[in-house]
């Protein structure tokens, strides 16, 4: 079993001393919104490097649409600061309401519904400062794209799961907030129908910001669509979307949501209730994966974001094994949330970890971070 020590870190000097003064492997953590610390099958000793107190916005220039914050800064604090100037972080990673930190969001690489329109978190990380396995402070990327040269460390750190370095400061690109948001919900008969209707809507010049499939009931999934634009135009947008659905001969209960508070709650209602697995997949392969899983009682598809490009499954212990085999056969990879930090929380295809391990060995020859295999 793992023996863990938690060390609270608040500056670079203390972090570098930690690398030089103790021999154990180091695992960076924030508010631990994505971690399950109740069990582990690893052996040895690990120092959990708690960065939650190393927080705060260090540089913010609204005119440049860039914000720099320390790794322990809560995403909610960043969003609140941006809102003062009519800006936001559009990739809206999950866990904001639970206290997720900037460093944890980048390390896990998770995205929210805004990924469909704006892109993933990795598209917004411009610069990172981190301590590598030798205890060196490394700067990667740049606040101006044309000034950034060399290895693309910002992209490398996204989804690295704390195994490439300890991030201390991160610079993000941000965007102006939409003037207004409105959503609609349509109860349909099957996941296939959700995907077909989403493709119909995406094929039209509509200001779609997000599309989710909510599996509130296996036989009655709900298509949830968000639109962004000027307040005066959104009623017409909703009418146009409704007419496209009607023209396609789709039958289902249609609900439009225009109240801003209700609309915001609609998209904030997401979290990690029980063991969930996020699978990156395109629409056709999602449908094939569902067919291969059948009606396994231990696996429940709860939500699909990005018009079916990310699927979230809730699984029992046995269901995790079944899903692991199905993802391997389909050459897909799943990330288990919450996960035990001492075990690689991946299901399915793990071939990419071979290349990741080679990069890790170059950056961490002393193996001070947990391994990918």
UniProtKB/TrEMBL annotation:
GO molecular function list: FAD binding; oxidoreductase activity
Chloroplast is among the record's keywords: no
Location of the FAD-binding PCMH-type domain: 1-177
Record keywords, A-Z: FAD, Flavoprotein, Oxidoreductase
PROSITE patterns: FAD_PCMH
Enzyme Commission (EC) number: 1.-.-.-
Pfam family, one: FAD_binding_4
Chain coiled-coil ranges: none
SUPFAM superfamilies per the UniProt record, alphabetical: FAD-binding/transporter-associated domain-like, FAD-linked oxidases, C-terminal domain
Keyword Chloroplast attached: no
Enzyme class label: oxidoreductase
Record-linked InterPro entries: FAD-bd_PCMH, FAD-bd_PCMH-like_sf, FAD-bd_PCMH_sub2, FAD-linked_Oxase-like_C, Oxid_FAD_bind_N
Protein name per Swiss-Prot or TrEMBL: Putative FAD-linked oxidoreductase
Organismal lineage: Bacteria, Pseudomonadati, Planctomycetota, Planctomycetia, Pirellulales
């Amino acid at each position: 079993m793992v023996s863990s020590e938690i060390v609270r870190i608040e500056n670079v000097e203390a972090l570098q001393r930690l690398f030089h003064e103790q021999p154990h492997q180091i695992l960076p953590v924030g508010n631990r919104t994505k971690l399950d610390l109740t069990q582990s099958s690893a052996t040895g000793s690990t120092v959990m490097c708690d960065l939650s107190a190393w927080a705060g916005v260090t540089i913010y220039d609204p005119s440049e649409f860039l914000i720099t914050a320390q790794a322990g800064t809560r995403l909610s604090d960043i969003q609140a600061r941006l809102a003062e100037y009519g800006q936001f972080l559009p990739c809206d990673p999950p866990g904001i309401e639970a206290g997720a930190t900037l460093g944890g969001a980048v390390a896990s690489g998770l995205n929210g519904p805004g990924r469909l329109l704006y892109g993933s978190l990795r598209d917004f990380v411009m610069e990172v400062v981190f301590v590598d396995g030798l205890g060196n402070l490394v700067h990667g990327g740049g606040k101006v794209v044309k000034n950034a040269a060399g290895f693309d460390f910002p992209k490398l750190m996204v989804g690295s799961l704390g195994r490439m370095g300890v991030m201390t400061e991160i610079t993000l690109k941000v965007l102006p907030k939409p003037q207004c948001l409105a959503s609609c919900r349509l109860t349909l008969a099957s996941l296939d129908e959700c995907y077909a209707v989403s493709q119909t809507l995406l094929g039209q010049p509509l200001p779609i910001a997000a599309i989710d499939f909510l599996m509130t009931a296996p036989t009655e999934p709900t298509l949830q669509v968000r639109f962004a634009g000027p307040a005066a135009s959104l009623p017409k947008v909703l009418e146009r979307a409704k007419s496209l659905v009607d023209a396609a001969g789709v039958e289902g209960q249609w609900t439009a949501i225009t109240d801003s508070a209700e609309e915001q709650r609609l998209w904030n209602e997401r979290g990690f209730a029980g063991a969930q697995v996020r699978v990156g997949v395109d629409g056709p392969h999602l449908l094939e994966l569902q067919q291969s899983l059948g009606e396994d009682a231990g696996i429940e598809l709860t939500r699909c974001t990005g018009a079916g490009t990310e699927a979230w499954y809730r699984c029992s212990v046995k269901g995790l094994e079944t899903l692991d085999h199905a993802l391997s056969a389909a050459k897909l990879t799943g990330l288990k949330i919450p996960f035990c930090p001492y075990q690689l929380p991946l299901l399915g295809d793990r071939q990419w970890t071979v290349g990741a391990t080679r990069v890790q060995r170059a950056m961490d020859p002393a193996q001070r971070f947990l391994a990918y295999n």
